[in-house]
């Protein structure tokens, strides 16, 4: 065993793929303490700063005092706290669907939902750059998986035309906002493609909820997470009431796992109330991202995620190190998270950043990296 692990670690190291989590403690604003250094973070999905918002913390504390810590059982046994009903109704309202159901995390939602709808003998057509949790859900389903070129609806249409008839059911899967690129999927066109080919469309809105207008066109299955802009934890699926009844009886990653702690449910409910009341807060991360891309002279940000592709693993790591010396924490994203040769800096903007902070990051990147487009 020890020998095997040693060999594996050496191989990972040789490919610059050895990773280890480094303790990162949130401080006020978007500052973090990391390796004894206080850094301004552009590496968090806490787009609205809600993870430390006193209103969410108070809601969670009240629920903690009243209901204690763990849920004690799965949702189908005795873990279905009354707060689930409130949260489901609020989620459905925010997403404009009839109903919603909450999973333990976004990852659990994806590995539960996809196998509930497709299996052996069925076809999944997905964008090449979908999130790893969607890929795991597709693998677990046993369905045939074909990928289309990123955001290329014509390629998706060609794959469907060539292969749809060999399979029974067909599901098209895409991220709404691509987590590593920050660009947006052509949801309306993919929905039309699905509907004209007896297929369903599923979108993963992990990075869109509460920070981007989702437009009028909605997927048949809409999943997302409570752990990013909402600042909490958990995943969700929105759609018809019938769909939720079906998932609650069949999605294994919902059934065979303990329900979320009531305090988290209470905080997520509060987060949804805040985003319904504060549209300006929700627009701020995208505005800051666009201010940043304007300053840098790169294509305008489409979401609060901005990727600066540098190529090699070393280029990305070096750039992140230089920025760390300048007082910024940004993440260097490398394969297998992104394709070979597209290692990058991935920056995320939050409503807690000031325009001055964003401007100084842009200056640091321009200067230290001699970034020019
Ligand atoms: C973060 C993320 C997930 C997983 O959500 P968790 O709640 O963190 O498990 C799924 N899909 C996408 C696109 C994500 O970015």
Structural description of this entry:
This protein is of the alpha/beta class. It has helices spanning 2-14, 54-67, 75-79, 82-95, 106-117, 132-141, 153-163, 187-195, 241-250, 252-255, 262-277, 279-296, 313-325, 355-369, and strands spanning 24-26, 31-34, 37-41, 99-103, 123-127, 144-148, 170-175, 200-204, 221-225, 235-239, 305-311, 328-329, 331-333, 343-348. Helix 2 (54-67) packs antiparallel against helix 11 (262-277). It is globular. Bound molecules: pyridoxal-5'-phosphate (PLP). Pyridoxal-5'-phosphate (PLP) is lined by residues 105-107, 110, 131, 133, 175, 179, 204, 206-207, 225, 227, 235.
Q: Short description, anyone?
A:
With 373 residues, this protein is an alpha/beta fold.
Q: Approximately how much beta-strand content do the residues carry?
A: 15-25%
Distance between the termini: 49 Å
Mean pLDDT: 95
Largest sheet: 7 strands, mixed
Task: Write down the oligomeric state.
Answer: single chain
- Ligand set: pyridoxal-5'-phosphate
- Total strands: the figure is 14
Give the SSE string: HEEEHHHEHEHEHEHEEEHHHHEHEEEH
> Radius of gyration, Cα only, in angstroms?
21 Å
Helix content class: 40-55%
Q: Would you tell me the structural class of the helices and strands?
A: alpha/beta
């Amino acid at each position: 065993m020890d020998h095997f692990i040693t060999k594996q670690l050496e191989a990972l190291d040789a490919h610059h793929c050895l990773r280890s989590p480094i303790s990162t403690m949130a401080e006020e604003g978007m500052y973090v303490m990391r390796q004894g250094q206080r850094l301004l973070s552009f590496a968090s999905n806490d787009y609205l700063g809600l993870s430390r918002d006193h209103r969410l913390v108070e809601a969670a504390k009240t629920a903690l005092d009243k209901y204690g810590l763990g849920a004690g059982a799965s949702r189908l046994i005795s873990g279905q706290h009354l707060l689930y009903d409130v949260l489901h109704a609020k989620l459905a309202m925010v997403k404009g669907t009839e109903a919603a159901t909450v999973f333990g995390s976004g990852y659990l939602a994806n590995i539960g939902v996809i196998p509930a709808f497709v299996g052996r003998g069925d076809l999944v057509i997905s964008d090449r750059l979908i999130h790893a949790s969607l890929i795991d859900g597709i693998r677990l389903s046993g369905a045939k998986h074909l990928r289309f070129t990123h955001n290329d609806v014509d390629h998706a249409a060609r794959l469907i035309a060539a292969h749809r008839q060999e399979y029974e059911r067909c599901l098209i899967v895409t991220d709404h906002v691509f987590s590593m690129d920050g660009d947006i999927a052509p949801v309306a066109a993919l929905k039309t493609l699905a509907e004209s080919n007896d297929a369903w469309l599923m979108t993963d809105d992990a990075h869109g909820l509460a920070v981007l207008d989702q437009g009028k066109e909605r997927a048949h299955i809409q999943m997302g997470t409570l752990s990013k802009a909402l600042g909490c934890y958990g995943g969700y699926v929105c759609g018809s009431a019938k769909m939720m009844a079906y998932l609650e009886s069949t999605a294994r990653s919902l059934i065979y796992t303990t329900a979320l702690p009531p305090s988290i449910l209470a905080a997520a409910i509060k987060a949804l109330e805040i985003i319904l009341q504060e549209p300006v807060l929700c627009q701020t991360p995208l505005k800051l991202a666009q201010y940043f891309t304007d300053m840098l002279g790169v294509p305008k940000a489409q979401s609060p995620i901005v990727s600066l592709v540098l190529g090699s693993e070393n280029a990305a790591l070096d750039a992140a190190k230089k920025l760390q010396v300048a007082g910024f924490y940004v993440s260097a994203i490398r394969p297998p998270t992104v394709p070979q040769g597209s290692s990058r800096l991935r920056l995320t903007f939050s409503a807690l950043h000031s325009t001055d902070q964003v401007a100084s990051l842009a200056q640091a990147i321009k200067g230290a990296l001699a970034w020019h487009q």
